[in-house]
């Protein structure tokens, strides 16, 4: 996985791309314009706290494209903290197991069982760090809501509380 050195982008949701230069725009249509400065400052602080750390982790782990896709797949099928149906939970468990099994099979054939198990452990830890960053972002969205920067009609906020 190659990171482009000049790209400074964070995905605020599945549909929201944000850069340091566009954080103020992210709050441009907020219900209470007087909160834009404080909300943008808080967002920048979160950015500086998380983005460099996660990018350094990605560089250190250096996941292949397939590994990165596996991490995304595991994140997609993770429903921690969400209220979902039993059927969806079963699908999540099944697909997560399939992804992990595929990685295990690939590693067994390429780098061996022991190194493969270590690599899967590293990738799962990496995925959990992404999950923690996602949960922090959701918490921040709640704070923006309390501040008045988001309301119940703000799409990005509504996507986080689904």
From TrEMBL:
GO terms for cellular component: nucleus. GO terms for molecular function: DNA-binding transcription factor activity. This is Nuclear receptor. It comes from Pristionchus pacificus (Parasitic nematode worm).
């Amino acid at each position: 996985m190659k990171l482009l050195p000049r790209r400074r982008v964070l995905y605020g949701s599945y549909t929201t791309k944000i850069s340091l230069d566009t954080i103020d725009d992210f709050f441009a249509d907020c219900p209470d314009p007087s909160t834009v400065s404080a909300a943008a400052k808080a967002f920048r602080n979160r950015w500086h706290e998380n983005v460099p750390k996660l990018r350094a982790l990605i560089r250190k782990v250096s996941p292949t494209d397939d590994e990165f896709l596996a991490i995304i797949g595991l994140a997609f099928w993770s429903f921690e903290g969400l209220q979902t149906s039993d059927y969806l939970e079963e699908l999540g468990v099944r697909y997560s197991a399939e992804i992990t099994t595929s990685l295990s099979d690939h590693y067994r054939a390429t780098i061996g069982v022991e190194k493969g198990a270590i690599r899967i452990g590293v990738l799962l830890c990496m995925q959990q760090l992404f999950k923690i960053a996602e949960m922090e972002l959701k918490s921040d969205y709640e704070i923006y809501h309390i501040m008045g920067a988001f309301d119940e009609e703000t799409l990005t906020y509504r996507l986080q509380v689904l």
